UniProtKB/TrEMBL annotation:
Protein name per its UniProtKB record: Peptidase M22
Any one GO BP annotation for this protein: tRNA threonylcarbamoyladenosine modification
Listed CDD domains: ASKHA_NBD_TsaB (cd24032)
Family annotation (NCBIfam families): T6A_YeaZ
Annotated PANTHER family: TRNA N6-ADENOSINE THREONYLCARBAMOYLTRANSFERASE, TRNA THREONYLCARBAMOYLADENOSINE BIOSYNTHESIS PROTEIN TSAB
GO cellular component: cytosol
Span of domain Gcp-like: 37-143
Pfam families (alphabetical): TsaD
Superkingdom as given in the UniProt entry: Bacteria
Amino acid sequence: MKILHIETSSKNCSVAISDGEEILCLCEEVSDNYKQSESLHSFVEWALEGAEISLKDLDAISLGKGPGSYTGLRIGAASAKGFCYGLKLPLIAVNSLDSMVEEFVNQGFELIIPLIDARRMEVYTAFFDGTSGKVIKETEAKILDENSFSELAHKKVLFIGDGAKKAQEILNLPNAEYRFDIYPSAKGLVKKSVEKFNQKDFEDVAYFEPFYLKDFQGIKKVDRVKKNIN
């Protein structure tokens, strides 16, 4: 089965093409400016060209559903749904935190904990078993302080993601390691997407919404008061 994978929930705009669990082509770029709107469709074209296939050869579309950047998720979801409608393909959705974990499984850690920066001292996180890679604590938004994860002081833990940097600055966990340069990636969607395809675990394209986890917080409008000057 050939699947187009799209992951736009973070600073990493990432697209992959896979045939089964084999990655045929991967195009991605990390940018502080969140270039999904500029880069996504070019990356799709390049990935298809690199994989030497066309859109008509695809069997499904896979999407990193979040949590993460509100705008990034909207762009990724709109593109994925557009491909599904236009090509009459099923949509597969995978938690974006899942896509970060696979390469660190069986590397000697008891727990793998993604931390996605959600502004200020908040992160999106979940707990994954370091041996099996299975989720053992579901995704949540968590505010970090010096007591966060204190119950893990005696465990060998790997924190990954752009939120791991601010965690390292305040946490006192002697057995923990931190990797700041890990982002959700389309390559990490492949294995779970194949599993879901085989199980026919598809989304309802018409009603699908990304996993925002919390409401969008934009800039609050300030009412201006006109004063009469005598």
